[in-house]
Please model this.
Amino acid sequence: MSFPINQDNIFQATNGGLDLITRFLPQARLNKHFKIRQEGTESANISKKDGVYFVKDWGDTGGFYSQSRNGIHIYAKEMGLTYFEALLQLGKELGILDDSKTKQKNISFCQFSEFQGELNEDGYCYEIKEFTDYELEVLGPLVTKEVCQKYGLYSLKSYSWLKKEESVQRELCKVYTVESSDTFPVFAFIVTEGGGKPKLSLQEGKPSVEQPQPQREWLKIYKPKSADKKYRFSYLGKKPVQHIFGLENAKSIYNALQNEIEYDEEGYAIEPREKKLERIVICSGDRDSLNMASTGEVVVWFNSETADITESQIGMLFKYAEEVVNVPDLDPTGYEAGKKLALEHIEVKTAWLPTELGKRKDFRGSPMKDFTDYMKTEAEFGDKEQRELRRKVKRLLELARPARFWTVKYKRNKEGKIVDGTPTYSVNYKNAFNFLKLNGFFRIKDPQRKEGYYFVQQTKHILREVNSQEIKDFFNVFLDKKQKEKGLRLFPDELLNMVIGTEAVSEKKLVNLETKEFDFTDYTPKSQYFFFDKFIWEVTKDKIERIDKGYRNYVMEQDILNEIIFRQTRCEIDSSKLTVEEPFFNIKKDDNGNWDLSILRKDCDFMNYLINASRVYWKEELKEVKTYQYDEYLNENKFIIDKHTLTDDQIYEQELHFINKVFCFGYMLHRYKDPSKAWCLYIMDNEVVDDNESHGRTGKSLFSSLALRLFMNSKYLGARKKGLLDSEFLYDGITEQTDYVLFDDADKRFQFQQLFTDITGDLNVNPKNQNAYLIPFYLSPKFCISTNYAPVGLDSSSKGRVLFMSFANWYHGEIDGFAERNPMHDFEHRLFSEWDMPQWNLFLNFSMQCLQFYLSVTEKIGAPEGNIRKRNLIAEIGVVFLEWAEDYFQNENVDNMVCRKVAYEHLKNYNKTMQNISSTAFKKKVQQFCELKGYIFNPADRVTDKSNHRIMAWHEGKTEEHFYIEIPKETHEDNEENDDLYG
Model:
C-alpha cells in the first residue's frame, strides 16, 4: 500500500509552504527578521531551500523553532497532528486529495454459506500484517512495532465475525468483514488467557490436582480513524469482566529481575533478595499506555478510565513495583476518575498533565486532554531519539504525588536495618497540600480582605468558604474514617494523635495552599447560567442546556438557587426533580409586524398570575354580567387573556401587557449589563387614577419583591423612607456580587431621576465605617422601582432610562363596588411558599423561557403607554389644576377663543396654592390637560403666529395670546358615554 499524498503535493499548493507559515506566523516577512516568542527579540527569519520555505528562531534555544521548520511542520505543531495526519488534513483542506482514496469503504458482508474464510469456534477470524510507518505514527511519536508486540498489539489486514440472529440458521446468518487501508488502520490487542500446567495441592492430607482453565483468546479492536468515536473500540471473543492490560508484561519483567544474580565487591554472589520495578504507570487508555511504554516505562491500563479499581488490584501492582503512578486525562471525566483513584488508594501517586495542554486544540477544535496529545505536542520533528521528550516524561513521573500526607520513619543502624520497630509519624507538607487540592481546598486572593485571601472547598461547581480549623478538622475526619474502615494496623492512634497535636496544619502553614482563580461570571452577552446544587442550566435564546461536568463557571454555596430560594421562601428545592419542559408560550411577529401570542399550557401558577395581572379590560368583560354574578364569573374565567367578549384591540393590548412582563422578567434575569440597555425597571399600576388616591394591591410585590429576588443577590430598600436618596450611605452593603437593587413602594415624591447616573454608569458605594469604592458599570446591579404612583417629569431622556411594566387591577382591595380579590382567590394557596416540586419546576422553566424570549429580540418592549402616559400627565398637572381645568374648559371656553391672561388670573384666584405658578408653567399644564383629555390645543388653522405656534387676537384694546381648545367629535361621544375619567 502507498500513502495517498506526499509533502511535495502540499508544497506545490502552498507556495513552497510559505502560505502555511504566514497563516500561523502572520508577522513573518521575507528578507527581514521578525519576532516569534513574546519575551524574545526579532531573531527569527525565513530561508528557502529547493523551493521550500523554512523558519528558524536563532534565539529559541531548545525550542520548536531552534531547528528549521517548514510549513507542514508548523501546521502539524499548531493543529496537534502527526506529520502524516497533517498531510491528509491539508490534502483535504486544499482540495488536492481524492476523497476516493481516503473514503472509508472498509466493511462488507455476506451470508455465512458464502464466506470464503474460516471462523473459529467463537465465530470470528482475523489476518495480521506488518505495521506501516503511518500506523506507528498514528499510535505515537516513539511507538515501535517492538513496543506493540510487547503489549500484544497487532496491525490487522482484516477481521470477520458472524452476527448471530435468534431463530436463524447459522448458514443464513451474515458474516461481516472489516478491512484496513492506507489511511484507515485497524489494530487489535490479542489476549490469550488460561492454559498452563495443572496445579498440585493437598486436600485433607490427600494430593489433589487442579486442571488449568482451557486456553481462550479474545481481541480488543481499535480503529483510531473511525468517523464516529463510539465505533473506535469493539471486541471479538469472550471478554472477561475485568482485565488489566500490560500486567503480564509487568510480571515478566519482575520475574526476570528475580533471576538476576548480584555480586558483592569481591565477586561473590549475594544472597538473593526480592527486587521490584522502580514503578508501574497506570494510563487511561490503549494509545496513552503505548506512548508511555514507548518512553521505557512499565505500564498497565484497565478496560476504561472510569473502571472501579479494587484494593487487591492496587496491592498486586505494589507487589511488583516500588511505586504506582497514575496519569489521568485532563478532561472532566479523566479529572474525576484521577481524583477518585487518588483518594481511594492514597498510596498511589498521581502525575497530572500540564494544564497548558488543555488550552490547546486538536484539528477537530477539541481541547487536548491525554498523554498521547502531550507526546505529540512535545515531540520534536526529525528527532528519532526524542531525548528531551523522554526527559520531560521522566520528570513528570518523578514529580507525581500521593494523597497520603504523612511519612513513617523507623530508627535504623549504620547498615540501614531497623533497630526499633516503633514508627515516628510526621506531616509531608507538599503531599498534604496535594491531599487538600484533591479534596477541593484552595486559597483565593481577595485584596478587599484583611488577610488578602480566603480558603474555599470546591465540590463540582460550588465553592464553600472555610477557615483553617475546618481544614484541620477535615484531616482528622478523614483519618477517623479510614481507621474505622481499615483498622488500627494501617491507621494507628499514633498517626491520628500526631495530626491532632501538630501545628503543621495551621493558618500560618495553610497560606501555602495552592491559589486558584475561579470564574464567578454567570453570564455572557448571549447567555445566562443558573446554578443549582447538582448542575447548572445554561440558557440561550435557542436552548436550555444542563451542565453537570466540565465546569468553567463557579458559584459560592450561599448563591446557588437552592439556597436563595430557601432563604426567601423556606422551600427546599430537589434539583434532581427539575426537568427542562417544552415551551409554555409562543411569541412571534405576524406578517404585519404585530406581536402574536399563543398560550400553550395553563398549569403554571406564576404565568397565570402574570396573565391576570395583564387583564386591563377585565371590567369590560363584566358589562353583560349581573352584579350578583361577578364573583362566579371571575372564578370561572381565570387566566384567560383573550376573552371573546372583548374587542380585538382590547385583547391585543392585554397580550402586549403580558409580552411586556415576559420581556421585563427576562431582562432582569440576564445579568449582563448592555450599555445600550441600561434600563431601570419601573413597576406601577395601570389603572388611571388621581395619584392622591392610589390603590395598589395589584400583586406587584409578588414579582418585584419575591420572584426576582429568588434568582439573585439583592439589596432591598424601602423607598418611602424620608431622605433615602440623599443618604451618603444609600448603597451600603452593595458589592460586585449584588445583582438587583429594589426601591420598593416608592411614593409620589420619589425623585427617580436622581438614580439615572447610577443606572447608566459606574456605581459609587460609600459603606459605613469603610472606605468608599467604585463598582464598574458591567459589574453593577440592575435597578427596579415598585410604586403605586406615576413618574413625574417623564421626558425623552427619562423614558430612555426606564423600562415600564404596569399591572392591571385584577387583584385589588375594595374598589368601585368590587370586593377585595388577591391571588389566594385564584390559586387557593400562596405562591412560592406553598408550592410543591412540580409547581416549582414549572416556575423555573417559565422563568428560563422568559429569559429566552428576551435574548431572542433586539427591540425594547415596554408596557402599552396609553395609561402610563395618562397617569404621568395627571401627576404632572396636579390635582388642583386638574380640578380647575375640568371646571373651566367647558361650555363657552371650549371650541372658542380663550384669553390666556384671563384664564391665568382665573386659576390663581381659584386656589391659593396656584398663586405662584408661572405663566409658562400654566401654559404647559393647559397643553398637558388637552393631551390627557384628547382635546386639540390651538388647531393649526387657528394659529396666527406660525413660528411660535400661537394665536394672537385683540382683547380689551390690545393684542393678547389666546388659547383655542377644540374637542373632536369622537371625544364628545366618549365623554357622553363615560364622564368619569377615572372609572
In short: Confidence is low (pLDDT under 50) at residues 976-983. The CA atoms of residues 125 and 767 lie 79 Å apart.
